[in-house]
Structures are given as structure tokens and as C-alpha cells.
Amino acid sequence: MSEQKTKVDMTLIQKLRECSGAGVLECQKALVETTGDIDKALQILREKGMTQSLKKGGREAKNGVISSYIHSGNRIGVLVEVNCETDFVARTDEFKNFVKEIGLQIAAAAPLWVRKEDVSKEIIERERDIYKKQSLQEGKPEKMVDKIVEGRLQKFYTQVCLLEQPYIRDPQGKEKVQDIMNSVIAKTGENLVIRRFARYQLGEE
To answer: Can you say whether the dihedral through the CA atoms of 17, 167, 159, 117 is positive or negative?
Structure first.
């Protein structure tokens, strides 16, 4: 596959994700099956029930579980609350496995917030200021600084916001935690919310 073809494919995948809400791998498979036809790929995702996650996102989720995970060696512990709409879904293996995976993700990747909207304006402006100074010190063209700052801010989100982080079981780093959650939402038919979490590491303040 040529470099140009790969670039086009990634653009198509992103477009399909934006209009479907499905995960990267689901979009990629659908596009491969339809040789890059977005309309046909979207139809396939609809038939598989993979386009419903965004519509379900506005529904209330008040059931669920508070789960704990203790990493081997007893040096890292996680408490996480994940909500769904009904107690029935909370008892399913699909939901339980998802909650377990979230505990593992938090233990391994040490996020600070659930979503990027949780990051305060003060912290965002502080990061922007740091990245701007770094860019100027590196001799970047001034007209490119704002774009560079936004790129580094997005990278910051992938490091500190749980839903923006690369999924730890995806070695290629293509899927985010949000993509995994969208997939579970589609499979269970209910809205899911990662409400809050706490991560403890031995010896940390």
C-alpha cells in the first residue's frame, strides 16, 4: 500500500468516525469491505448497530458499579465508578469486562481526569503558555506557533484524560478509551458514563 493510499485511508476513517461514532477498527473494517465507499461503510455500521452510541449518549445513566482494582504487588490501587442505565446491563459480562479494563487502564496510564472537558481553564491556559514559550525558544516560525500549541495541547489531553488516552491493549495506539466505550455502548444498547475514579500509588502524596 502506497504512502498516499495510507494517508487517504486514515482521512476516510476519521470522516467515518465523525459521522458514525463507531471505533477506529470498526470503521477501518467497514471501509476495507466497501473499498473506501463511506456511504456503504456507514450502512454496514448501521446494520451492525455500531452507529447508535452517540444518540444514546444523552440518556441518563444512574445504575452501574463502583469497582476496585489492585495491581500485582499491591503498590497501585484504583477505585472507579462506571454508570449504565439499568441494573440488568450492570450484571452483564460485557459491562463487567469493560469496567475491569477501565481499572487496568487507570492503573497503567495514570490519567488525571476522565474527559478533557474536566480540565480547568486555568490549567489549559497554563499549558498553552508553556507550549508557546517552548515553540518560540525552539525557533519555530511565529505564524506557526498557534497551530503547534494546539497540537501539543491535544497530545497533553491524550496523556492526562482517560477517554482520550490510547487503549492499553491496542499496540498500535489507534483506538482511544472513548472508542472502546462507544463499542460497548453499541453492544449493550445503553448509555455508559465513567463518572469518577481515584488512583493510589504506594508512597505518593
So the answer is: positive
CA distance 48 to 104: 28
Contact assessment for residue 179 and residue 70, using Cβ atoms and an 8 Å cutoff: no
Q: What is the pLDDT of residue 151?
A: 93
Distance of CA 153 to the CA centre of its chain: 16
Mean pLDDT of the chain: 85
CB 34 within 8 A of CB 9: no
Domain 3-51 has CATH 3.40.50.300: no
Q: In the CATH scheme, what is the code of domain 120-158?
A: 1.10.286.20
Nearest to 51 by CA among 18, 8, 99, 73: 18
| CA atoms within 13 Å, Cβ hemisphere of 96 | 5
Q: Which of 84, 81, 153 is nearest to 124 (CA)?
A: 153
Say if residues 175 and 125 touch (Cβ distance below 8 Å): no
User: Which amino acid would we find at residue 109?
Assistant: A
Domain ranges of the chain: 3-51, 55-116+161-201, 120-158
Residue-wise pLDDT for 160-184, tens only, equals 999 999 999 998 878 999 999 998 9
What is the pTM assigned to this prediction?
A: 0.71
